[in-house]
Fold these 4 entries.
Entry 1:
Amino acid sequence: MSQVQPSEEKNIFTHLKTMSECIQLSFAVCRIGIYTCFRALCCKGPPPPRPEYDLVCIGLTGSGKTSLLSQLCSESPENIVSTTGFSIKAVPFQNAILNVKELGGADNIRKYWSRYYQGSQGVIFVLDSASSEDDLETARNELHSALQHPQLCTLPFLILANHQDKPAARSVQEIKKYFELEPLARGKRWILKPCSLDDMEAVKDSFSLLINLLEERDFEPSRM
Ligand SMILES: Nc1nc2c(ncn2[C@@H]2O[C@H](COP(=O)(O)OP(=O)(O)O)[C@@H](O)[C@H]2O)c(=O)[nH]1
Ligand SMILES: [Mg+2]
């Protein structure tokens, strides 16, 4: 019987060790391949984080601020109550989350609006297009004050001429003229859009334009 020499034994041992390392490496490569295929097929990973913007929403009582914001948050219209102080809602959109602070629009609350402007990155102003002449004038004065306020004057504005479903509603052209938006808001970033609770798709489109302004992707002085 031939005896295995120590040098041959060492060779066999080295050979076995190399084989075992090769097998381990092949398994590791297979594992990575399977994991990569699994990830590609099954899980796309978490979506990228959406930017958040802090907005203030103002307008007279009854203009429809709470109703519009609640609809955008898919909340039941039955839960809507008059806003006495302020309320904050996180309104989700595909490409951004808007943290909207709605300020109550009653006569005795409006004088405190400016205390809540700090930190805002944009403004939503809602008006009732079918309101009385007196209320429309009050709304105009409030919008003018907001457009000229030092904490808001450089921010993008979305002005929603709401209640367009009502027969008495003024057209967006009439409102633009009555509110003297052209001279006052010249050079500012603002959007004036007609809307009503009946057409939330149009409301969402208007908010998308506002998000564009917030991202400063699509800058033009004014849009209608
Ligand atoms: N017809 C009509 N009614 C609306 C519209 N938007 C709001 N409203 C109604 O107006 C009332 C006041 O709305 P609300 O959201 O509380 O106004 P806010 O005081 O500005 O928050 C509610 O009865 C709403 O259902 C609209 O576009 N058309
Ligand atoms: Mg309200």
Entry 2:
Amino acid sequence: MLYFFIIAIALVKNAKIDVNLTIGLDFQDNSYMEFFNNFSSHYSEFKENGLNLNIAQHLLPCYSCNTRHQFQKSEKNCLGGGRYCQYSDYVSGQIILKELLFQQCVLDVLPQHYFNYTIYFGKQCKKSTMVDCSKNYFKNNNITTDPIDECVMNSFNQQDVQEDIKTNKILDKYKDMQYNQTFYSLYLDSQDLSKSPYNEFLQQLCQKFVNASLQSCGQSVNIETSSNQKDNNKTPTNQKENNSLEQVFLFIFALIILILMASGGWTLLNKIQFGSRQAPKSRITIPKLEGDHIIQEDDI
Ligand SMILES: *[C@@H]1O[C@H](CO)[C@@H](O)[C@H](O)[C@H]1NC(C)=O
Ligand SMILES: *[C@@H]1O[C@H](CO)[C@@H](O)[C@H](O)[C@H]1NC(C)=O
Ligand SMILES: *[C@@H]1O[C@H](CO)[C@@H](O)[C@H](O)[C@H]1NC(C)=O
Ligand SMILES: *[C@@H]1O[C@H](CO)[C@@H](O)[C@H](O)[C@H]1NC(C)=O
Ligand SMILES: *[C@@H]1O[C@H](CO)[C@@H](O)[C@H](O)[C@H]1NC(C)=O
Ligand SMILES: *[C@@H]1O[C@H](CO)[C@@H](O)[C@H](O)[C@H]1NC(C)=O
């Protein structure tokens, strides 16, 4: 019995795919557009299967803001009193920074619109009418921006009083990522694929999702085989057969677990769960709460 549980647990852990795609961007640069155009139709499927998309925006530093006023005065091209800055000839840096926040919130709140919106923005909106132009995308698609605006608002530290010296958690994250390049770049986990053609990128990505049998990847296999003189037309169907076989195995394991549980394996399962959740681990994660609790009890 134990043997089956161990295998089943191992399988469940294997099924969890954790892949990070990190895109570095610079506001003045539009070289991200081709990749975005290609990837926009594939993103949703990968996301549903465990892809984490991280954006890193290149922010400009204001060294003197710290020495002059310790980030306590407003700066035209900065937020956070100079902690985060942007610059362009046609709009203020503050407007650009607010747009970057808006884009991050689109990704967080309406991820299915992130690529379409940023493509639209890159094509249409990098000019003096930036804010109105941005709104048009949402008007055209009948989408309310309220949840996005709320996300932007909540990203500012509510304790600071003056609007443009408030610290901001999204911009702090960008700052920590230290993306200092002025061109777009693309990392799949720690692998730099910035210079790879889209087909190659998709292949690499699909390798990480090889057990998920994705539609996006089926297409890439087709493209690959047709360019390889059509002699390998069997590969896509073989892959599908493998995957359905796997699913049958998973189903059988699930059945076995259900049967074992019904036949008194319940206590065993409980033991295993407690065994893997080791006591010291929970102490490490909530030491403060535990400490507070003890102090309160002592006081009483
Ligand atoms: C993905 O990123 C998260 C958080 O940054 C990290 O915990 C995780 O280990 C990363 N996964 C991989 C496969 O690199
Ligand atoms: C990527 O997009 C370009 C146009 O933006 C297109 O010509 C090219 O075929 C696309 N590549 C793939 C693999 O879809
Ligand atoms: C994004 O744009 C593509 C192509 O224009 C379209 O097919 C798709 O439905 C759009 N996605 C959303 C969420 O609007
Ligand atoms: C948006 O709503 C208006 C009226 O409410 C409708 O005429 C229009 O077709 C809608 N557009 C989309 C893209 O759904
Ligand atoms: C990126 O730029 C910031 C500020 O300009 C600097 O503090 C940091 O060291 C740079 N990081 C790297 C990796 O170059
Ligand atoms: C896919 O599944 C096979 C067997 O089920 C396993 O050996 C392999 O490591 C899995 N690949 C990935 C990328 O998880």
Entry 3:
Amino acid sequence: MSCDYFPTSLMLLYNDNLIGYCKISCVPNLKDSCYIESVVIDVGYRSQGFGSKLLKGAEYYMKLRGIKNVYLSTKGQENFYEKNGYTICEPINMWDNRTTIITTAPILINNQTQIFCGPPPPPMPEYSPTLSPIITSKTYMTKRI
Ligand SMILES: CC(C)(COP(=O)(O)OP(=O)(O)OC[C@H]1O[C@@H](n2cnc3c(N)ncnc32)[C@H](O)[C@@H]1OP(=O)(O)O)[C@@H](O)C(=O)NCCC(=O)NCCS
């Protein structure tokens, strides 16, 4: 484990050797959700259940921190994730809904000068995971943990 907050990286050790790695980020747009950015098992240790073990450990780690939904995208590893309980879902957009807070209130300098910021920016469009036009060749998958 690299740190106690997201994003974080988890490592899988076998006989003190690092054989697996997993990176997890939060999804700012979606409540109680994380995104698995990568799952890698050392090529010499594949097809022995280590990938599934790493994924389960990552899910356990996320669940302890209140995460309820896990997302990921893949190209070619759909079988592996299906085997581990993931189902295909709509692509998600991680970042659309970020908001910048710009104040329009007067700012006092030396208790006298008032500076007014410009007019407020137009409202951000409503975020909807199904409406975001994401063009991708990857398969998005999700699991409720
Ligand atoms: C995907 C990966 C993490 C799986 O790790 P693993 O230790 O082999 O996983 P497990 O042994 O728990 O499960 C293997 C099962 O997943 C599926 N699977 C794994 N790799 C697969 C592949 N390349 N194509 C299709 N199915 C695959 C198979 O069902 C396989 O079962 P089998 O080996 O009995 O046929 C590993 O192959 C890897 O590191 N790949 C390179 C990095 C990568 O592509 N990561 C995923 C990014 S989305």
Entry 4:
Amino acid sequence: MIKKHVYVLGAGASAASARLPLGRELVWNYHVDCPSMVQINNGIPDLSKQNEKFVNFREFLEMTASMFHELNYLPQKWDDRGSTMFFLSNIGKKHYIDEMLWILYQRDDHDGIELVRKLIFEHLAETSLLAANIHRLYMDTLYGKFTKKIMMQRQEEEASIISFNFDVLLHEDIDLESCFDYRMKFDWIDPNRDKIYARSNPIKLIKLNGSLDWGICPSCDKIHLYHTHLFGSFYNNKECTSRCNSSIQPFIVIPHERYKEIIDPLWILAEEELKSAYKVTVIGYSFPEYDKKVIDLFASALTSDVLLEVVTHCEGYEHKDRTRATTNLKYKRLFPALENKINICLNGFQGYLNNEFG
Ligand SMILES: [Zn+2]
């Protein structure tokens, strides 16, 4: 019997592969990550195009200024930015969007939540586009190398992937002859994607928080699968293919949001995969406290004799021992039933792919 190896991907994997924002950078670094050219006319920067692109971001700054008095200078700072980057230095933990969304949910502020969701989409879609332009060849990216690795190991072990990332940086690739299967029942698939999606012997890619390339109709619940080449503006302009005259919403479950029942089968599948895994490798995911549903899933599904590998990044050699110790403690506390020693790779996604443990 072929052994099952489950990989778990979090934001750290996408940050390492293509500099996608981590949770703390999400939305806040949008302008720094995705600047657009500013024309200078007679010495005066013409910001009209940029203002158009970042119109939601401007609104977000307005909202944060009203939520946190210490940030009330932000809209003005934005308006005065000229042709400079919009760097922010005093963004603290309480301003991270997962904390902010928690406040918005308490207040039942649907417009605010929707605005943050839109910006999450824009920020990830636009940084992904930039990454695609930089790398050009998928196989040169860490995700490309990762795909190659798990395909080469297929004789010895069957890989499946659980991902918490919305981005679609990990996707099918013609050169690598690799295919993934979201295991989601789509009612409609973009015809161009349909030709290549989930073809022969695909690898399971279970995205428990949804994905930027999935869309759901708020009226008829029809689920759509789009292509992987996404723009920030793609958020608003998709019509339901059922002709029910509704606009499709991206199917992404943002922090603190309730999961739609439609996604339940994926959680059940993830549980089955974890239960039958001989090895689980967690790359760039830190089991944050608000992901209680995820922690519960792993606590109940991981078998006591599973081999657990944790891939994380550690800045500076002198911190390695401490990082190893705190990571170990954290996992022991989260999953006390685990019997085996946890294998910790502190050299990040790249180091893991190069087999550099330690
Ligand atoms: Zn519909």
